[in-house]
Amino acid sequence: MQIELIVESMLLPRLPDGQRLELPDGATAADAVTAMERQGLTGSRTAAEVLSSHMLLCNSRHCQGDAVLHDGDRLILMKTLLGG
Predict the structure, then answer these.
(1) Amino acid 71: pLDDT
(2) Is 79 helix (H, G, I), strand (E, B) or coil?
(3) Per the CB 3.0–4.6 Å rule, which of 39, 47, 49, 76 could disulfide with 34?
């Protein structure tokens, strides 16, 4: 299956619009971040670091790393905002 990746983070490399990622059926959001790390799409950060410091959205809805992805889904990685 293929998903679309969108990265909204100053900590990760900018991806071209429409960046696609090929994943096996049944892959989770965390699997997608691990695949990004293997392809060098997380810069110097490990998948674990990205998962702990970024919010994940699948098709514009907040999700956790264990969310199962489907063909055509859009996964957004957004830097978590802190402060008051």
Answers:
(1) 98
(2) strand
(3) 47
The letter for the amino acid at 81 is L
Each residue's pLDDT tens digit, 70-79 = 999 999 999 9
**pTM > 0.90: yes or no:** yes
H helices of 1-84, where? 29-38, 47-53
Q: Are 58 and 67 in contact (CB under 8 A)?
A: yes
Q: Which among 53, 76, 56 has a CA at the least distance from the CA of 65?
A: 56
Question: Which segments in the chain show pLDDT lower than 70?
Answer: 82-84
Number of CB atoms found within 10 A of residue 62's CB: 11
* Beta partners for residue 22, in sequence order: 2
Rounded CA separation 50/9 (Å): 10
d(CA 12, CA 84): 24
